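A reminder from the course coordinator: this example appears on the midterm review sheet, so study it carefully.

Given structure:
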């Protein structure tokens, strides 16, 4: 359904299972129980009264999935005439998506309850929120909560950027995630890792424990000169997830609001460069396989990036984490190598190789086609000084890096889709 003004009387309401409404400026509310078989509701690029949206959900007793994308909620007031936060009552819903939505009469820059989102969904299993920094909360327990995807963007379509309260992101982030502390999978993306780091004096107040979380994904930018704060943010989440088994960190040093070149700028040159970079990576990998019966990835120190006598990551090293002692088995890292000894990604690879006691696999994703710059990570020399060591047997390296072994050694030609070529390699298994 597309248009500006809708009525629902002409729809086969008794048989409808999926209702997808796009570009709607007004909608007559349905009667109670009007959608007895409706399972999925999608609203995209709409401007509707919050009462109408609630009536749509109330009219479908079996509604399981709700997607709200670029929906502007209007026309609600509390007793004082102010616009309170939004409350979504969806008692049967198991999947809820809220992306880039706004509401009348509030400004999320205020950082208070105005503009907050309260969710009454006791059967909720999967929540994905992408939008302006605001407080999210559950008004009723959701014991089967499985996946929380939280993506705080710096600003939305409706509101410009303003940094009157530098602590707002930190406060709203931790207030939001603590409402979903029983989630088993956390996918968190923030504008800046430094913005969610919690110092020692406030950890008791802000941090929470995700006792059931087995997978944690964290994506965010950090500034090389303030990497300690970014390390503190990672340490905070490791402390909050004592049973995590799979950790994935995606790091960037690019400013989130930096200007970018036109997407067509130098496209032919950049594509050729990517193909050459990929060919170099494959050739180096194949030479390792053919010439080394046992491969330790020492690389003779080339591109190591971290001196042996500089092991610490300020804000992270020296702290005890339960997950490193008993549960963490897989670590995935995506970063760009920097031309200095403070590369955060390399230091993290070194930290987990030396401190995660049951670690089985480290996966390094270059984020581009220059895998050759990452393949010399000096894993063996990073292990704590004990008689044990980490090595990679030839057969295991071939098995775990099948992306290379199944691709031809020759350079991809002009017909090869670069999106289908891998940008990562796996160090597996780690044998102590």
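Designed residues:
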């Amino acid at each position: 359904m597309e248009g500006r003004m809708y009525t629902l009387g002409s729809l086969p309401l008794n048989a409808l299972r999926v209702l997808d409404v796009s570009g709607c400026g007004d909608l007559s509310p349905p009667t109670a129980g009007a959608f007895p078989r409706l399972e999925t509701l999608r609203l995209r690029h709409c401007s509707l009264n919050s009462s109408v949206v609630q009536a749509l959900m109330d009219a479908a007793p079996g509604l399981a999935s709700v997607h709200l994308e670029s929906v502007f909620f209007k026309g609600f007031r509390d007793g004082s005439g102010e616009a309170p936060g939004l409350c979504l009552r969806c008692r049967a819903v198991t999947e809820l998506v809220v992306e880039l939505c706004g509401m009348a009469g509030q400004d999320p820059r205020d950082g208070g309850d105005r503009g907050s989102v309260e969710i009454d969904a006791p059967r909720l299993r999967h929540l994905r929120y992408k939008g302006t920094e605001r407080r999210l909360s559950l008004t009723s327990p959701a014991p089967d909560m499985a996946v929380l995807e939280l993506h705080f963007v710096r600003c939305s379509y409706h509101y410009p950027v303003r940094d009157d309260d530098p602590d707002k992101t930190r406060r709203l982030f931790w207030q939001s995630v603590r409402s979903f502390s029983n989630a088993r999978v956390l996918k968190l993306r923030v504008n800046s890792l430094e913005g969610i780091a919690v110092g020692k004096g406030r950890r008791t107040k802000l941090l929470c424990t995700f006792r059931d979380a087995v997978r944690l994904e964290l994506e965010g930018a950090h500034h090389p000169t303030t990497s300690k704060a970014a390390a503190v943010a990672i340490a905070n989440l490791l402390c909050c997830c004592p049973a995590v088994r799979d950790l994935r960190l995606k790091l960037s040093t690019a400013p989130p609001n930096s200007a970018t070149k036109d997407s067509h700028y130098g496209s032919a040159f950049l594509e050729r460069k990517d193909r050459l970079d990929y060919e170099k990576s494959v050739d180096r990998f194949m030479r390792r396989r053919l010439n080394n019966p046992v491969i330790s990835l020492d690389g003779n120190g080339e591109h190591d990036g971290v001196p042996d006598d500089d092991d610490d990551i300020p804000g992270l090293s020296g702290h005890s984490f339960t997950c490193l002692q008993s549960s963490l088995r897989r670590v995935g890292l995506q970063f760009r190598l920097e031309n200095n000894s403070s590369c955060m990604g390399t230091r993290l690879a070194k930290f987990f190789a030396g401190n995660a006691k049951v670690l089985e696999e480290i996966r390094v994703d270059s984020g581009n086609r220059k895998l050759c710059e990452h393949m010399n990570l000096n894993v063996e020399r990073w292990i704590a000084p004990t008689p044990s060591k980490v090595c990679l047997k030839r057969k295991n390296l071939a098995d775990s890096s099948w992306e290379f072994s199944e691709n031809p050694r020759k350079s991809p030609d002009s017909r090869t889709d670069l999106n289908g070529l891998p940008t990562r390699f796996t160090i597996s298994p780690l044998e102590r």
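The radius of gyration is 25 Å. The chain has ten helices and 22 strands.
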